[in-house]
Amino acid sequence: QLELVESGGGLVQPGESLTLSCVASGDTLRDAPIGWFRQAPGKEREGVSCITHYDGRDFINDIDSVKGRFIISRDIAKNTVYLRMNNLKPEDTAIYYCTEVFVQTSVPPKCVFQPSFDSWGQGTQVTVSS
């Protein structure tokens, strides 16, 4: 099980951008599928974007509300998964977490918003407000 630490959150105005980082320690990322989740006040935690690596390629799964705005990527050399968030909206306000997730055995493979382990870090707060 990887140990993952989130960072990069902050207070921004609507329309601005942020990049979150999820740094792995204890082991290398290798091909581990990683997902970003968020939890807004009074709401259930929801999956946002996930990435899995197979046969030399990255495969990504985003929820509809962030498609075209959020970009997930990974840098194996830095043992880090990023979430670039553009055109932020007030409804994106939440604590953001990253964790390992499951992958459907499909072709192509598809990561799903189901955590592999019931273990969460501290998260990083994102607040979008004018």
Structural write-up:
With 130 residues, the chain is an all-beta fold. Helices cover 0% and strands 55% of the residues. It has strands at 3-7, 10-12, 18-25, 34-39, 46-54, 57-62, 70-75, 80-85, 94-104, 110-115, 124-128. Strands 2, 4, 5, 6, 9, 10 and 11 form a seven-stranded mixed sheet that branches. Strands 1-3-8-7 form a four-stranded antiparallel sheet, with no helix packed on it.
State which percent range the strand residues make up: over 45%
Q: What coarse outline follows from CA principal-axis ratios?
A: globular
Annotation, overall tally of beta strands: 11
Gyration radius, to the nearest Å? 14 Å
Helical content band: under 10%
What string, H for helix and E for strand, traces the elements in order? Answer: EEEEEEEEEEE
End-to-end Cα distance = 39 Å
Low-confidence stretches: none
Oligomer: single chain
